[in-house]
Amino acid sequence: MSAAHFERILVVGSPGRTDRQDALTLQAAVSHMKLSWITARHGKDIAAKALPDGVEREVIGDIALSTWRGHVDAVQTIVTSRLSSALILADDIDWDVRLKTQLLNFARGVRFVLSTPKSARTASPYGDNWDVLWMGHCSERFPANDPGRYIIEDDPSTPSHKHLRAQSVAGAASVTDDASTPLAAHLDKALFTIYPEHSRVVHRAAAPRCAFAYALSASGAKKVLWGLSVRGLQHATFDEALAAVCNDPSLDPKCISVQPQYFFRHRPHRSSSALAKKRPGSGEVRGSTPNIRWSVRMNLEALISGRRILQDQFPDQEVSPLEGSDA
User: Fold this and answer.
1) Residue 206 half-sphere exposure, CB side, CA atoms within 13 Å?
2) Spatial contact of 240 and 67, defined as CB atoms under 8 Å apart
3) Which residues pair with 12 in a beta bridge?
4) Are strands 255-259 and 200-204 parallel, antiparallel or unpaired?
5) Bridge partners of 264?
């Protein structure tokens, strides 16, 4: 994938969800991405003796087990294949048509946060000393002791504050696989009080939730495979366990996050979720992807048909031209 400069893109596919595979295949095609699929196995099919220390099937549940094993299989692929890096995606996510430009800016931010000199020649555009790049989440906050943040100002792909949602006092998002329950993107309140409109902030990961999209370097994959399987699993869900690895000083993790995120879960038009919106002037319910302005999924028909006008989910003006996009 030339846009992101990762050696491979791995998608963790949900068992039986060929509908998601169809949609993501089209999204990748119009975005010039090549995907490698890893189908998660059903939780009930994972042998009890294969569960890591600390896991009780009755407590964690089969859905969480399936998600955990699918992601661990993806991580294992990076280690086994000796990949220098890989981007790991959930099978129901969405991104902006300007992803290539977004990730170029993100790479500058990662290098800044990890103190990589501008003049340093590195194998990766993100530098050579990162472990996890957490680019798709549903909740995040800034670290208490933040050594540095990189501010991307006047980012036209970032929605204005009125379209973003701040964290509650508890600072936690509602994370669920139930389509009837809303899943919102909760961002640190400082994003709204410190930084101007249309700002995106790259920083050390603090408490990300939901692993919609993240990249691992070779060193990061080894740390994650150790922390989420071989050493044992002390957290009920994969995203909580991955966040714990990012906050484990014994592993010296270098995990970078971004607010707002670059990837988010898409709810298709048939969903009864609160993320599904009614099309103005009609009774039709259409899909939605929080925080993604020129959504690839929402604009698939236009992109496939070669139309030059794209729909902006969170417009500052009525329409957005395709000129200048990366599609």
Assistant:
1) 19
2) no
3) 38, 90
4) antiparallel
5) 94
Q: How far apart are CA 53 and CA 233, in angstroms?
A: 6
Residues 6+ apart with CB under 8 A from 312: 293, 294, 319, 320
Rounded Cα distance between 155 and 148, Å, is 19
Question: What is the SS3 assignment for 80?
Answer: helix
User: How far is CA 187 from each of CA 64, 79, 166, 252, rounded to the nearest angstrom?
Assistant: 24, 32, 5, 25
pLDDT tens digits along 119-174: 899 999 999 999 999 999 999 999 988 878 999 999 999 999 988 887 653 433 33
- Residue 177: per-residue pLDDT: 35
Helix (H) or strand (E) holding 142: none
What gap in Å lies between CA 174 and CA 209, rounded to an integer?
A: 9
**What are the beta bridge partners of residue 21?**
none
What pLDDT is recorded for position 173? 37
Phi-psi region of 33 (alpha: psi -120 to 50; beta: other; left: phi over 0): beta
**Per-residue exposure over 121-157, b if at least 16 CB sit within 10 Å of its own CB, e if not:** eeebebbebbbbbbbbbbbbbbeeeeeebbebeebeb
Asked if 96 and 292 touch (Cβ cutoff 8 Å), the reply is: yes
How far is residue 159's CA from residue 191's CA, in Å, rounded to a whole number? 12
